[in-house]
Amino acid sequence: MAMGNKQKNKLRHVIRVFMVTMAVIMLFWGLVLPVINNAVALGIENDLKEALVNEQHLQVVDSISAAGRFFAFSNDMQYFGAVLVTSDLSEAELEAYFEKSLFYKKYNCSYEKQTSAKISLSKTVRNMDLSFDRFPESTCYMIYRWGQPSEWVRPLLNTDLR
Q: Does the model's pTM come out above 0.70?
């Protein structure tokens, strides 16, 4: 029994709708989701930069952010933001300043002395090949923090295939 033209057109319409839906889903997972994850990481970087504008002893040199699966013990997406700073304070004065600063407690930041433009953190961090674009000759510190998106959106953002 052959299909009529009306049935063929209806089947073609269903196939087209299915194909368009699949294309939209593939675009979302392939392009949109990584952009959203990178935007979350960029938000962390921008929060740090904005907060450091009022810090009188620190000069921002460069900043960086990244999204990915950086920890060996987790399959969740992690979001990293860092700012490279210099200061006119001595190393001891600067470390004392970091310890008592409300900024670092409020933003739950960490800091490390940087000896090169390449960012190197603890051994639990994997797949993180980041470096600052600018690195001055003076003593520099990296102020950084890890972030997470809201609980309700985390399962969706974790489907990023990176």
A: yes
Q: Rounded to 5 degrees, what angle do the CA atoms 117, 120, 124 make?
A: 165
Residue that is written with structure tokens 């194909």 in the block: 19
Calculate Rg over the CA atoms of the chain. 23
Question: 28 is written with which tokens?
Answer: 């979302």
57: tokens are 């002893």
Whose CA is closest to 80, among 118, 124, 130, 114? Answer: 130
- For residues 114 and 32, what is the distance between their CA atoms, to the nearest angstrom? 34
CB of 75 within 8 A of CB of 131?
Answer: no
Average per-residue pLDDT in the chain? Answer: 85
| DSSP character string of the chain | -PPPHHHHHHHHHHHHHHHHHHHHHHHIIIIIHHHHHHHHHHHHHHHHHHHHTT-TTEEEEEEEEEEE--BTT--S-EEEEEEEEEESS-HHHHHHHHHH-HHHHHTT-EEEEESSSB----TTB-S---B-S---SS-EEEEEEEE---TTTHHHHTT---
The C-alpha atoms of residue 97 and residue 105 are separated, in whole angstroms, by 12
**pLDDT of 122 over the 70 cut:** no
